[in-house]
Design brief:
2 copies of one chain form a homodimer. With 341 residues, the first copy, chain A, is an alpha/beta fold. Chain A contains 14 helices and 12 strands. In chain A, the strands form 2 sheets. Chain A has a 6-stranded parallel sheet, with helices on both faces. In chain A, β9, α13 and β10 form a beta-alpha-beta unit. In chain A, α5 packs parallel to α14. At the A-B interface, α4, α5, β2, α6 and α12 of A face α4, α5, β2, α6 and α12 of B. Chain A binds a DNA duplex (30 and 30 nucleotides) through α2 and α4.
DNA sequence: TTCTTACATGTAAGCGCATACATTTTGATT
DNA sequence: AATCAAAATGTATGCGCTTACATGTAAGAA
């Protein structure tokens, strides 16, 4: 099927040199006279030679490729993260190969294996679902196994281990502060909505609980303020509507989708936003401004985290034996809009 | 870096057979006795052998991989399409490698080259920006060049050529019908909002113009109803607000993002939706239901198109010499919500 | 001029696999 | 037991490239 017949031997013959020389000019080796380099480049320019990556890979065992694993690319947060990562990796001459793992462990393991089998130079896991609940269960064993082969980077996740590096958002703090500011504005009944038990979701929950306790709520009461929902606008709305004794004047959601479900709930209840109820989302995605009223949201600086992650990958891949810290934190920023006072 | 030292020779030695036999059991060849197959499989199970894809690829010149090119993965439509494609390709044993081309020609060419250099078995271009305006300009020359190497499939685009296959939505018809239904409901001034000159955008414009002409509007008047905007909620809103003599009671947008911009405009103007103004979006994405009021949108059956595309790819890749039609059309469906009566 | 060096280029080995072809084994048939 | 076809297995080659090492060459030193 593939007909790029022209190989290094063709170029060598056509330019009257050996394949070693061709290889040298292709790889920018400095041990080539300017004259022959030009000669070879001319031929290449004429016939359009591209090295066969398989052959290169076979020898070098690398393809200048990094694998990116996401639970699902059909998600605002994931797809924008992938876009940032890709942009950045390209700058450094690396291509990326994408894996959609789904949320179940088997899918994650399988896709990790798939990516590794492509001889990626590094693996990036996007999203905290890859970090389990932060404890070292066997649910993250496959990550540690992968790290035996290539450096593994986790965006907003936290898995300990040799050769594993994490970039995390300061979610706990962000939610704590968001909740605290609501409390300061006199809100009495704040609930926290989430669809997940992931590492990141847990941090957010902790932030919420800490804020609640800080104003004297009992531990149980704080915990009861956490409501688990599905990650779907209408189902969030319906679930809240179905809760007859739900009485709240403040909602913090673990993502914007859920926050919008909350907005729909408030609207259906005939409440005024933000007078009767304040709502804060998370991720500061396009969804947040697509809603009316536009949703106040916590920005977790995805672009910055992605750039930073790629920088760190390059530090390792470029052979730098310089020790990298295994975990860096990036603060979040609250973007105030119409759903808060 | 990569330490998967165990290769086919190791397995052969450990199981007391030749590498040819190991290769045969790996590839499920039937010319292996049950006894030796089991013997080899046992060893493999024990030491965990995975064939080196480079070596495989070098010989076979294929890696069971298809390339997917999108202008940007950070877009609802693109990312969901990629998700569908990936899911479907996996089922057939193909992995996918993603390229983010950006919207400029150079990026498209470069990324196409990158994907081809990875020895993909087929190339999928997602989105009509790859089809230019439908005319055969040199802006699509690189696609025809790629098609000389592998079969190229375009999702919602239209480029003619050997080895190029397209799946298109019936956008013209969908917009025509949407506009016509608005007209039937007595709307007098309908405008069409778009951010693009792509093949798909042009079809939509044509549908709009045809509908306008069908109720006696002059060609010029129909054309003047087309307003070019940026693909950004707030900028759409602001641009419309800035048009002092804009007087319309119906808006059709070429995607949901723009439609929501229109909603924001109407809201800012204090209009009642849908009484004073009807708005229809396109793609039926999550954005459409995240807005309040929820936006009526045209669903272009992305999932169906993607599945269908993969089916056709497989027909070709599985060596079927069966002739495929170079273009198939899929109808769209209007999903009525709160922005239409 | 002759020897030395540094630099430029060429030669050949191997990376791990699939597979055409060669060889051996099996088992059925006589 | 002898024969032969079919089935199972092995041998050896090539896929296109990088690179250590070998060889060649030109410039400078003696």
């Amino acid at each position: 099927m593939n007909k790029d017949a022209v190989n290094i031997y063709d170029i060598a013959r056509m330019s009257g040199v050996s394949i070693a020389t061709v290889s040298r000019v292709m790889n920018g080796s400095e041990k080539v006279s300017e004259k022959t380099r030009k000669k070879v480049m001319d031929v290449i320019g004429k016939v359009g030679y591209t090295p066969n990556v398989f052959a290169q890979g076979l020898g070098l065992n690398t393809m200048h490729t990094v694998g990116i694993l996401v639970p699902t690319i059909a998600d605002q947060y994931m797809s924008s993260a992938v876009a940032y990562l890709e942009t950045e990796l390209i700058k450094h001459g690396y291509d990326c190969i994408l894996g959609n793992s789904g949320f179940d462990l088997e899918g994650k393991q399988k896709k990790t294996e798939m990516l590794l089998s492509k001889h990626i130079d590094s693996l990036i896991l996007v999203g905290s679902t890859y970090a389990g609940d932060g404890s070292d269960t066997n649910a993250t064993e496959y990550i540690r196994a992968a790290a035996k082969r290539v450096p593994v980077f986790i965006i907003n996740g936290n898995v300990n281990g040799e050769n594993i590096y994490a970039s995390v958002c300061e979610d706990e703090k962000a939610v704590y502060e968001a909740a605290t500011s609501m409390l300061r504005r006199g809100r009495k009944n704040i609930v926290f909505l989430t669809d997940s038990h992931s590492y990141s979701a847990n941090k957010k929950k902790n932030g919420y609980e800490r804020a609640m306790k800080s104003v004297g709520k009992a531990a149980k009461e704080a915990k009861d303020g956490i409501i688990y929902v599905e990650n779907h606008i209408h189902r969030v709305r319906d679930q809240l509507l179905a809760m007859e004794n739900l009485k709240c004047d403040g909602i913090i959601a673990s993502n914007d989708m859920i926050a919008i479900g909350a907005v729909k709930y408030a609207l259906a209840k005939g409440m005024d936003i933000p007078e009767d109820i304040e709502i804060i989302g998370y991720n500061n995605s396009t969804l947040a401004i697509s809603c009316a009223p536009e949703v106040t949201s916590i920005d977790n600086h995805t672009e910055e985290i992605c750039k930073d992650t790629v920088d760190r990958i390059m530090k390792i891949l470029d052979g730098g034996e310089e020790k990298l810290s295994h975990k860096i934190s990036v603060p979040c920023t609250l973007i105030a809009r119409e759903t808060t006072m």
